[in-house]
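ugh ok fine here u go
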Amino acid sequence: MVDLIGKKRFTVYDTGLFNLQLILNQKEKVNQRFKEYSANLTFELNVYKQFFDDLDRKFLKEPGPVQEHLHQMILEREGQTFMEFFESKVLELQEQTKNFSKDENEAHGFFFRKQVWDFILHSAFMLRTNLKPRGYAGDYEMMKMIYENEIMGKSLFARLLHSYPLQIPAANAVRNRRRMIADQIREAVENHDNADFRAMSVACGPADEIGEAFSDMVELKKIHFTLLDQDMEALRVAMNTVNQLELEKGISIHVRYINDSVRSMLRIRDLPGVWGRFDFIYSMGLFDYLTPPVARAVLARLFEMLRPGGKLIVGNFHVSNPDKAFMEYWLDWVLYHRTEEEMLELASTLPGHSRIFFEKTGCQMFLETRAPNC
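structure:
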């Protein structure tokens, strides 16, 4: 018995040692220029961190309001200098990695995050994208952080690191698409005839756009919404969004919640019979995570659920996204970026008319396709 336990312990030890060696060997795949970049970056970030930490200590005994005022002054002055420095390092990262293959990006990204991990720990946003507690980077909590765009952190340095990813064009694009989809929903409702209006959000997340879309509407009796997400926690947040809107406005919204996945969508034979038919279907972020074959199949299944004349809109980050390197290396947030042609190709077999349009940063594009009227 003792011998058996001993062997098991040595097996665990040997496995751990083997995995350790695999991790250490990763650095052999990293080019020297990138190692130098990472070393210089960590040195400079440590210098900035010490500078801001020293300021935090100096203001520690000040009354709360005075301390907050001083912090705000520093964030607006020295903080801006830091942001400019950080942006320059991100641009340098982008330049160094622009011609990397997928394998090279993975190897260099793994190495990079090992170097900057202690800094990532200071940013609630960066930490969540890296740890992925819901199994993926762009979860409902991430969306909430981007939408709310609030500075968080226990120190000046933490606040600065947390705020950077919330200010980049990609984050602005996420906020823009929420407003744009809300406008699209309102327009679709206003242009609809007297029959009931049915809409569906796929991978709905927190569904904040519903509050924005219906905030000024009085007559909602004929509006029916279906919210689909594989994450039950996301649906609970969406329920809270709807309940809060109903309480604030004294209205009632017909909402159906479906806790299901893309896998089910592709498996269910009679999708319109099970989930329904809709005048408006949209998905803002799902397609960023789908391979071309899966994206094409999902788009076709969504199209099946359109009523005659119905509209389908899906979003996807464009290949011109200037924050791609930052997202992949700092946030471990990897998306399928597409061109307009690649996006239109997904809908090439559908009978409806399709077009591409962008939100104002140009990071996020949308494919819109309409079902024939009969």
